[in-house]
């Protein structure tokens, strides 16, 4: 199913055209952020901005604060456009930053002319049963590439997720779990993982691969608000199978409990409800 953008800006020009020599297209040379909008506000905007800034530094795209300012400007333009679309109370803003046109060859230009692409989409609809009754988690065959320099940021090269999502689509399940080359659990195709074991809530370490999700970081930072402390650790597939409960989290859909994974059925852990209640109150999930 194709999803048409309500608005597309390339820099400040309303157009869907971009130079075919753009390095984002040729090499995945750039970053992106996907922001959930509810009633004209972006609940986790500061976390998206911080991850964007880390990405500009990792890819050496330019002066970080200047680029962060442009990011905020283009998000503001998208929000302004949404005020004219009364039917879009909930929406998605996607901001892409590429290194711009670079000609042939991998080496980037000394003074690149960066491109910001800003798009507005209708918010995706998910079955309410995903949150209330849980999902079945598929174990993806494709494994994540190990690259500590790029781990955590949302760079444009998403081939690992593309291949894993193709595998997931064949399974018919709602989300897929991805491992690294050591067979440790890292993340879902579009989410981070929470593991409930006794009193512990653990999320896999992503220092070598994976995305530092904004909701994941919020939960790591705000134990005092949720009443639940989340910590990072290296997690094996066996740890996941023996856990008391599992859940996947994402800044777009919130938290989905896992009811089945790798042939094991899980009861919805009580802490899922605690987190969901906090997210509903704080961010209207």
How would you explain this protein's 3D organization?
It is a single chain. It is built from nine helices and 15 strands. It has two domains: 7-122, D-amino Acid Aminotransferase, Chain A, domain 1 (2-Layer Sandwich); 128-283, Alpha-Beta Barrel (D-amino Acid Aminotransferase, Chain A, domain 2), CATH 3.20.10. Strand 13 and strand 14 (254-261) form a beta hairpin. 31% of the residues lie in helices and 28% in strands. The protein is globular. The protein starts with 6 loop residues before the first strand and ends with a helix.
Q: How many H/I helices?
A: 9
Helices and strands, in order, run as: EEHEHHEEHEHEEEEHHEEHEEEH
Shape: globular
Q: Largest sheet, if any?
A: 10 strands, mixed
Distance between the termini: 24 Å
Structural class: alpha+beta
Mean of pLDDT = 95
Query: Class of the largest domain in CATH?
Result: Alpha Beta
CATH superfamily of the largest domain: D-amino Acid Aminotransferase, subunit A, domain 2
Q: Let me know the number of strands.
A: 15
Question: What is the CA-based Rg, rounded?
Answer: 19 Å
How many domain regions? Answer: 2
Features:
285 residues; D-amino Acid Aminotransferase, Chain A, domain 1; 2 domains; 9 helices; five-stranded antiparallel sheet; alpha+beta; ten-stranded mixed sheet; single chain; D-amino Acid Aminotransferase, Chain A, domain 2
